[in-house]
Amino acid sequence: MGEMISFATLERQRDLLRDRIDAAIARVLDHGQYIMGPEVAAFEIALAAFTQASHVVGCANGTDALTMVMMAEGIGPGDVVFVPAFSFVATAEAAAQLGATPYFVDVEEGSFNLDPASLGRAVEDAANGRFGRSRLVIPVDLFGQPADYTTIGSIAQAAGLTILSDAAQSVGGVADDRAVGTLAPWTTTSFFPSKPLGCYGDGGAVFCDTEEKAELLRSLRFHGKGSSKYDTVRVGLNSRLDTLQAAILIEKLTTLAPELERRQAIADRYSSALADIAEVPRVRAGARSAWAQYTLRIADRNAVAERCKAAGVPTAVYYPRPLHLLGGYEGYPVVPGGCPISERLCGEVLSLPMGGYLRDDEIDRVISVVRG
Ligand SMILES: Cc1ncc(COP(=O)(O)O)c(C=O)c1O
Question: What is the pTM of this model?
Fold first, then answer.
């Protein structure tokens, strides 16, 4: 077995940026404004510029970002929130936490994203109100590729649903010349360390399209504050982005564009070498993935994963179970006909090493081990 390949090459990024990040952390220690220091707003402005989003509001993590948007929309008991069954649990958890009803919809085979046809069936099924009022749909840009917001948008509009884009994995992605962060009225993301733009702990943000919404989010993340700290005007959360994490993110944002280019090149290299033995990920025309993960579908997934492990090639299974079959979520509604694609994907998907600093010789080694 050769040397273990890095799954996300985060340590190479750390080595590249170490001096700048050390200096950024030292500046925070010097000024001492650990909560809502100047780096928070500076990072929000930099990320808004990167994505062309009107407003970015940082918060403590990607799950809180989802929760804050739902609080801003007044989602609660008696409300139905449509979510894909193939995602990380946080997408459904935020709705359930607020007492709303997550309703599970199936995904498309090629993109792994919310299937508009399945959403259409779900909306019809829920139209008589037996699960509550249909309020929101949360498309997830799984593994970095934007969901089909155009088609989902028409269904949502006809049904009176608001769209919240869960872009935890897709900052840097593009659809029809528009960047993730601008594809829906509300977009949330996560800066969990392994995300394409990750910090060194927990962090998250909401992208929105009006100053009024941004102001509401700034209140919600700070215990529902009004014009001053102790003037509370609504029930909120403690969900601020740490100054230290913002300082780190400012530095990391400077290398995101070349990293995205490199991720695309790696994905292209994998896809051309593996398309004859596996279902390689498909990206819609006009869309660009941020390639948070490179995920293929392969027969004998577990045997391939074992072979990779033995040869020093780390792999991961995102996700082994669909959301509607997870503990705590079995009681919630599922689209008529169920979510067979989500269930099948859970048994077939395998994510290969992917990161902005993976070398060509390492990619070739991964390819040769996967081919067996
Ligand atoms: C699709 C998706 N939604 C939400 C989250 C939640 O983000 P966080 O871990 O920052 O709370 C994650 C990642 O962890 C995710 O992958």
Answer: 0.98
